Amino acid sequence: MPPQFRQDLEGTSPTRRAFAGIGIGAAGLLIWRAVRAGNDPADDARLGVDDANNPGPVTIVGFSDSGERRGVASMPKVAKTNAQWKKLLSGRAYAVARKAGTEAAYSGDYHKPPQRGLYRCVCCGNALFSTDAMFDSGTGWPSFYQPIARENVWTKTDSSFGMIRIEVLCRRCDAHLGHVFEDGPPPTGLRYCMNSVALKWIG
Q: Which CATH number belongs to the domain containing residue 145 in this structure?
């Protein structure tokens, strides 16, 4: 792996506010959002759903903190024990990114587009989304119409909470990021609905 690429991927654990669990009202909002989409979000052909997790090595696209594309590289997946993740992450980030939790709407730092920059995975530093593809969805979660590179994320069907949704995960470390729906704006028509606490903004 090129040294610059390796440096770009190194992430640090930011401090976060205390863990706030999702309440009944927020859970109801999740159900309402899935119904509001008006179609089945589990359209595997459209969303490119992976049938199974790739054990690695994985191929991802590297980006500098300024958003410059560094190139494609193959590397081992980041694998840690739960105890190691707990030491690296805040309690809130661990509950969302490693245990597939969901932060309450409007509770995250990034639910509205900030200044220009990119978002990296809070767990491994993988570049995930750019503010160039960010929009205010009015849902209380940061939303994007596409990832910064399709290679850097993967998706799978999520049937929890009595719904069929498409879960979005980090390609490099399998961190849970959020879900993708088919009610987004052009040019993709997709809404990558992410958890702020699973992301680290680099401006």
A: 2.170.150.20
Domain that includes residue 122, residue range: 3-202
What backbone phi and psi angles, to 5 degrees, belong to 168?
Answer: -110, 130
Q: What is the DSSP letter of 194?
A: E
Per annotation, catalytic residue among 121, 124, 170, 193: 193
- Angle ∠(39,130,103) on CA atoms, nearest 5: 60
pTM comes to: 0.75
Per-block average pLDDT, block size 10, for the chain (203 residues)? 45 32 35 33 44 74 94 93 96 96 93 85 97 94 96 91 91 96 96 96 90
Catalytic residue check, 193: yes
Phi-psi region of 155 (alpha: psi -120 to 50; beta: other; left: phi over 0): beta
Neighbours of 34 (CB within 10 A): 18
